[in-house]
Amino acid sequence: MADVDAFYRRIKLRLVETGEWDRMKVTIGPKLNESGWLDDIKHKGVERASEMDQLSFQTLFEALSKAGHVGLPLPARRELQAMIREYLEKQFE
C-alpha cells in the first residue's frame, strides 16, 4: 500500500507542477457549484466547526474530505477521472 500512496503523491505533485491540477479545478469547479456540491460542503464545514469544542483544522479537513468524496456528483467524478486518465496516458506513452 505504501507504493500506491507514494505513486499517488508523485502523480499529484506532477499535476500541480505542470498546471494540470489548476486546469482540472477550473473545468470541474463550475459544475460542482451548479450542482450545489460546494454549498453543501461549506454548510457541512460551518456546521461541523460550530459543533467542535476546540476548533481543529485537521479534524475539520478529514471530516469534509470524507463528505466531499462521498457526495461528489457522479458526472463530475467521471469527468475528473477521465481527465486524470488522459493525463496519465500522455505521461506514459
TrEMBL record:
Coiled-coil segments: none
GO cellular component annotations of the record: nuclear pore; SAGA complex
Protein origin, superkingdom: Eukaryota
Gene Ontology MF terms: transcription coactivator activity
GO BP, sorted A to Z: mRNA export from nucleus
Protein name (Swiss-Prot/TrEMBL): Transcription and mRNA export factor SUS1
Organism: Lentinula detonsa
